[in-house]
Design goal:
Structural class: alpha+beta
Radius of gyration: 50 Å
Number of helices: 14
Shape: elongated
Number of strands: 13
Helix content: 55-70%
Largest sheet: 13 strands, mixed
Distance between the termini: 96 Å
Length: about 675
């Protein structure tokens, strides 16, 4: 392009020069005709040239000599050459700028293409990583599931074998007892009675011995503290002096303290030996009580599963209530690890609660159906397993070390007892359903696409990578869209969005929480922030339980200072990561309405209606569900000795409506 422009401009300049030369020659030759090179032109052109030459000749006299004309022509020629050079330079500059602009556009376009390719490559790599993580997780889940099934089958086979063995032992024992004479039976009963009395006597002696040891330890502590104070006073006095006497007094005081400490350590060693023997006796006696109570419970459950008469069923259920209470009291004293104790307590809680519900139904004139008998049979099988483990443990343990090792080994074998028994009640009225009119169905219905967008908004801070719609859940109380959300780490979250109103009704996820980085107060703040993001603010925490590394928090709506227990929300927070990992807002959404909160009984008057011995330490007005209807009550937190209770009195009549007993376990507080 540059060369073409230069050639074009150069030819124009040469043409200008030729014209000027011809013009100068014509002016010099007076009246001369054009040269032969111009002979190819027409006559008219020749005539015009002659006329032009004559005019030039006539004008020459006026302008001056030819020398001046040449100077002017030369000057015009230089001016034209300068102009031509400037045009050439301008054309070159324009061409260079155009080339530079084209180069820049090409570079920008190439950069865009490379950036787009890099983004596509990154997306492909990310999708590939997510797919690999999902595949690895599925393989891990499948492997764990296979292991669980294999272990379960193995445990079932072991239990079946042990059950057959115990059955044979029981049969042999029955045959032995059947052939027992009256005198032998009397001797056996007398011997068993003496053993029970001996166990009770050892327990009393152990308590007295422990009390004496505690008093002696307290006296030794007081003596040591007094000696330390005396020694410090002497040191302060001696620091004011400089001499051998002060140093000698300090050495004597230190020697005296060492002698006293040596005497205390020696006495403590003797006491430790006594306490070891005592601990072994206490552990064995407690286990004997557990075996006895477990055997009675096994007998009652075995009879109940084949009973058909209401009177006999009531008697057996009453025995079950007593047996579970005795067995749980023994569990609290036996030196098992927290996991085993909690699993057994969970099973006993379920058995006790189910026995109560069956008694209430029998009292109301209702019968026991096939589902109830199937559940009783399952409880019998679980208790039979527990009885076999305890009996075998006592039989094979010869020393205290073996006894404790056997107790620790029960954890894995009895781990499924608590889970098999169902969940503990972790808050008042936590499992109540809809009362009155369901307000959720009055809200506007949304589509699944709108529900998916709301799910993304609710879990915006969880860095969700994928949302998958899995279907709908339709119940009498609510209709929901079900979603599975996957975050950038491959963790799946199951969430339910209500079809009416698009509210987050429920979500749950599993995150391994191994450390305690957040306490209950901090978890409460995290849960409230999550609820605020859902538009739920006017709530009050009524139950905080710290079990394991996950905090369980229960909230109720509050109106005019009254706790509305029908509008309940349950939240779970991982104490390691400080993240909400579970929510159940069913009660809050289906019961969110206005209630009549007027009452006639004051707090002081209600307090007088509490049973003797109950010492109230907290009070709230609370609306609670009773037989599907809301009842306004005075809620009292009370202590009775070392035990704790929740008592609800009708705010108008003062009658007792509900009583809960607060229990403690390794999984946190729960109610009975």
């Amino acid at each position: 392009m540059k060369k073409q422009n230069e050639n074009h401009i150069s030819s124009g300049a040469e043409k200008v020069e030729r014209v000027e030369e011809n013009f100068t020659q014509d002016t010099v030759d007076t009246g001369a005709s054009p040269k032969a090179s111009a002979g190819t032109k027409s006559k008219n052109e020749g005539t015009m040239s002659e006329s032009k030459a004559r005019k030039t000749t006539s004008t020459q006299g006026k302008r001056g000599t030819g020398k001046e004309e040449k100077a002017r022509a030369k000057k015009a020629e230089k001016s034209e050459e300068a102009s031509a050079d400037r045009r050439v330079q301008a054309a070159k500059q324009r061409a260079a700028e155009k080339e530079e602009k084209i180069g820049k556009k090409a570079a920008v376009k190439q950069a865009k293409i490379e950036k787009k390719a890099a983004i596509q490559q990154a997306k492909l790599e990310k999708k590939q990583k997510i797919a690999e993580k999902k595949l690895a997780r599925k393989e891990m889940v499948a492997k764990k599931k296979a292991e669980r099934l294999e272990n379960r089958a193995k445990r079932k086979a072991d239990l079946k074998a042990k059950r057959v063995e115990r059955k044979a032992e029981k049969t042999a024992r029955r045959e032995l007892l059947k052939n027992e004479t009256k005198a032998e039976r009397g001797k056996r009963l007398e011997r068993e009675k003496k053993e029970r009395l001996a166990v009770r006597r050892r327990k009393i002696e152990a308590r007295e011995h422990a009390r004496e040891n505690k008093a002696k330890a307290r006296e030794a502590t007081h003596a040591r503290r007094a000696e330390d104070k005396k020694h410090k006073r002497e040191q302060r006095t001696e620091r004011r002096r400089n001499g051998y006497g002060g140093w000698l007094a300090a050495v004597i005081s230190l020697g005296t303290a060492c002698l006293v400490l040596g005497a205390i350590v020696t006495a403590g060693a003797f006491r430790m030996n006594d306490m070891t023997v005592e601990a072994e006796g206490n552990a064995r006696s407690t286990l004997y009580e557990m075996v006895s109570a477990c055997e009675d419970l096994d007998d009652s459950l075995g009879k109940l599963r084949v009973s058909a008469g209401a009177g006999e069923q009531r008697r057996l259920l009453t025995n079950i209530l007593v047996d579970t209470a005795l067995l749980e009291a023994s569990v609290q004293r036996v030196p098992v690890d927290s996991a085993t104790g909690t699993d057994i307590s969970a099973f006993l809680n379920e058995t006790n609660a189910y026995a109560k519900s069956l008694l209430d139904r029998l009292a109301a004139g209702e019968g026991v159906n096939e589902d109830d008998m199937a559940r009783v049979a399952r409880l019998y099988e679980v208790n039979d397993t527990l009885y076999g483990e305890l009996n075998e443990l006592i039989t094979r343990s010869a020393s205290l070390q073996e006894l404790f090792a056997g107790i620790g080994g029960m954890t894995e074998r009895l781990h499924d007892l608590g889970h098999d028994g169902g969940a503990l009640t972790d808050a008042p009225f936590a499992d109540e359903g809809n009362i009155g009119k369901n307000r959720l169905f009055e809200l506007t219905e949304i589509s699944s696409a709108e529900a998916e967008e709301l799910a993304r908004q609710y879990f915006e801070s969880y860095r969700i990578a994928d949302v998958r719609y899995t279907g709908e859940t339709v119940t009498r109380e609510f209709n929901c869209y079900d979603f599975v959300l996957t975050d950038e780490n491959g963790i799946e979250i199951f969430a339910q969005i209500t079809k009416n109103g698009g509210k987050l009704l429920f979500f749950d996820t599993y995150e391994e929480c191994m450390q305690k980085n957040f306490d209950l107060e901090e978890c409460d703040g995290l849960a409230r922030a999550f609820l605020k993001n859902l538009g739920i603010e006017n709530v009050e925490a009524v139950w905080l339980s710290d079990g394991g590394m996950v905090a369980n928090l229960t909230y109720t709506a509050v109106s005019e200072g009254v706790r509305l227990y029908p509008e309940i929300i349950r939240v779970r927070v991982c104490e390691e990561k400080g993240r909400v990992v579970g929510l159940d807002a069913r009660g809050y959404l289906v019961n969110n309405t206005q209630y009549d909160l007027t009452h006639s009984l004051s707090r002081d008057d209600a307090k007088l209606r509490l049973a003797a011995g109950l010492v109230p330490y907290a009070h709230n007005l609370a609306l609670i569900p009773v037989d599907g209807k809301p009842v306004l009550c005075h809620e009292f937190g009370c202590t009775y000795g070392e035990e704790e209770y929740l008592v609800y009195l009708d705010a108008n009549t003062g009658e007792e409506v509900e009583i809960f007993r607060v229990m403690e376990s390794a999984r946190g507080s729960y109610l009975r």
